[in-house]
Amino acid sequence: MAYGSGFFKTSYEADMAVLDSGVRRVALAMLVIGLLALPRVASAFVLELLSQAALAAVGALALNVLTGMAGQVSLGHAGFLAAGAFTVGVLVEGWKAGPLVTFPAAAVVGAVLGLAVGAPSLRLKGLYLALGTLAMHFVVLYLGSEYQARWGLNTGVSVPPIVVFDMRLRTGVQWYYVLIALAALAAVVSLNLSRSRVGRAWMAIRDREVAAASLGIAVARYKLLAFVASSTATSLAGAVWAYQRSFVSVEAFSFFVTVEYLAMIVIGGLGSTLGALLGAAFVTLLPYAIDAAVASLLITGAAEYYLFPLKFGAFGFLMALFLLFEPQGLVGMWRRARNWLVLWPLRYAPLRGGR
Amino acid sequence: MQAVASVLVLASLYVLLGVGYVLVYRASRVLNLAQGDLMMLGGYALYATATTVSAAPVVAFPAALAAGALTGVLVYVLLMRPMAGHPIFAAVLVTVSLGIVLRVAVVLVYTDQIRYPGQVMALSNEPLRLPGGAAISTLDALTVLAAAVLVGGLFAFLRGSRLGIRMRAAGERPLLAAQRGIDFNAVFALSWALAALAGALAGSLYASNVRLDPSLGVLGLKAFAVALVGGLDSIGGVVVGALIVAAVEVLTIRHVNPLLSEVSPFLCLLVMLLVRPWGLWGTREELERV
């Protein structure tokens, strides 16, 4: 971070600190207070949108761990989500299982699936690995649709709300708090992973595998760990998804969903926790932002109908633009803007070498 | 006998799509996940020509193929060329974006209704009786013919012609090829054009034979299993891969369960990745063990 002169990190602790300046502490405190107080002022629709963004953030952070940090490309993210959601659906439908059973089960299923998909990563790289994960996605979806067909649940499986101490988790406000808390938890875990031995090992593997191995990093073990960690978290996110929508169906986990999550981490900024959060919010809110823009321009009738596909395809176009022109994503733009502001009126940092 | 005929027809469709993957992979080392959507676009180009310009197949089919080839060149110049030097992963994601953009564009213009260009062009599509009691439609037979001609033509082109040899050279080692005076940009653009043309051919045949809707691109995802089974950089491998994948798919439909047949290409892909990741005829490259 090029904070001009006068801001130097002089100890290891300072370098590791997450909240390294007063400004950041104040900003975080304001964010927390704002998110906690929001249900008092915001409408149910806004809360629903933020809940969706928060849930997407959990999935995006999980994908970011695998693809952004460890550099293992996955085209099967929707498959992991589906695995978690269907674990819940199957257990609830067949055995009337409660959340105390379904969540650990979803975690186990996710971990096993991650191990199964991760194992080829010891042999395969890049494109070939991505193809393997994509194939896994279709196999998981097949199992789901086979289950639906076998039990005559062609439209999907319905899931009852979670009951905690005789209290039903069902209103939008309750879900809002739960999902925001989950997203915050995932963000903290991801941030801590990136500052720890594990995260540094992953990033070393991402940047150059041979160099990482020669530094003594057990490449095979860390790669598998990345897959298992990511798929477990994603599967849990899928389980939460099932409870929040109170409905599970194969149609909800198409390849399109995988692309959406990839777009989140690409648009946000690959490998960055803040980027995954920003990207998740951006991609989730984009259709509604387009909607609002159209409504404010007072376009109605046929144009509105035509805009429907545009709303859901806009992120694809934006992902291409970001890949071509801003590979650092929103985080890169934010960093540049901040540096410009901090350094103003100078053009660049007095000491070169700061990032 | 009918099973053999079905396998042959399905395999031909897969060959047309798989050849596109291989050509692009040889040129840009990128897996073009928009190949299926390029195919869909070819189908719509056919439909557009048939409804606006002329319903004569002699006009509509060449127009669709030309539109396909032009799209291929545009994709290379506008998207793939600027992605040179970026990670391959990013380039693959760009093709994914391209697929979504193409699909949205088609829905914007033609909505997501199912269309039948075959009816617009009033193709009769008579069933042909084959020896052994099997029957396939005329357009099915044309698909098989098209695949055979395309693969044969590509073989002759890549083996014999000057341009084809340049194409192989540039695909193998772009730097060396450039030093020998080969304009690899032109060659790669040509590769993309040929790949998109093959896609458009598949799309226009499939669209006039079966149906046309914006989600046709999903077929393309199945066809990459074909390219990988055969070997991502081998055109001959595509034919064998297509036959294997199509045979597995047809057999699963007939003897196991139609739902399973939808994923059978991906099961073939997984088996291949476990046993021989570089495919039957592919070059062993950039695959190192940890």
Unreliable parts of chain B: none
Number of helices of chain B: 12
The secondary-structure element order of chain A is: HHHHHHEEEHHHHEHHHH
DSSP strand (E) fraction of chain B? under 5%
Given helix and strand content, the structural type of chain A is mainly alpha
Radius of gyration of chain B (Å): 19 Å
Question: So what's the oligomer here?
Answer: heterodimer
Q: How many distinct beta strands of chain B?
A: 2
* Greatest interface by residues involved: A-B, 46 and 45 residues
In whole angstroms, how far apart are the ends of chain A?
5 Å
Secondary structure tally: strands of chain A: 4
User: Which CATH first-tier class of chain A would you pick?
Assistant: Mainly Alpha
Helix content of chain B: over 70%
How does CATH name the architecture of chain B?
Answer: Orthogonal Bundle
Biggest β-sheet of chain A: count, sense, barrel?
A: 2 strands, antiparallel
Q: Given the C-alpha coordinates, what overall shape of chain A results?
A: globular
Helix and strand topology:
The complex is a heterodimer of chains A (355) and B (290).
Chain A (H helix, E strand, L loop, with lengths): L11 H5 L5 H20 L2 H26 L7 H19 L3 H20 L7 H25 L6 E2 L3 E3 L2 E3 L2 H24 L1 H11 L1 H6 L4 H27 L1 E2 L6 H14 L4 H24 L5 H24 L3 H15 L12
Antiparallel strand pairs in A: 1-4, 2-3
Chain B lengths: L1 H27 L6 H18 L4 H24 L7 H23 L6 H4 L6 E3 L5 E3 H23 L1 H11 L1 H6 L4 H26 L8 H13 L4 H22 L1 H18 L15
Antiparallel strand pairs in B: 1-2
